[in-house]
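thought: fold this chain, then report.
action: predict
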Amino acid sequence: MNSTARIQRLHRNGLDAITEATTTDDNARPFARAFAPTVQIYGLDRASGGAGRAVVAFAIPGAQLEYTTPPEAGGRAVYPVRVEVMLSRRSDGARFDLDTLRRFATAAPLTGEQYLTGLVELPVAPGRYVATVVLSTVPLHPLNAYPKGGTAEVYYQLAGLKSGARYATRLELFGAEDDAKKPARLSIDFETTATDTRAEVSRSLGLQNLAPGRYRVRLTVRGGDETASAVAWLAVVK
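observation:
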């Protein structure tokens, strides 16, 4: 086969692979129902210098959101909203991501034409970006019991952060009866950049590979010379 024919064949194979990859993706995010939010994204410089930032402003019809009225909220309606921002720079594919959980409190439940509004920002380098914003509600689970094959939402708060610093996080699940030498049944690592001195974080944890039973969840966050950890319990049921 001559070089021209070989190049054409490789080109066709590449196009076929791209078509298959972009039309048969079965990893779509499932949601029970769709919101109708209004979202605006702005790229801004800092007047004092330093890294630029992407500012995401959003508004969600209040009637589409679920809320709770916990005693500690003093009678107010509390709306937990997960905000995921994914930015990809066109020139080189560099990624800048934000994944946070915000809890909004209102004096009374939102009705009619009332909207829940919010604002998040993340530091970004100069460039042109493709942006994806996902807004979703996060029902907090007081029993920490989830069906086998389901998804658990892990929520935690951090304080004492240094804005602009990188923090490494590890989530580990151990069987309730596992000794200290046994490795984690499930382990997830990720890094984030702090945008403030405090943060509320929510992560989805797939339970497909875990058998029914009780598990110890260990969260470890490292940044600079500092390390913090916390332990909680989770149950997987049939």
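thought: worth noting. The chain has two domains: 38-137, 145-237.
final: tokens above.
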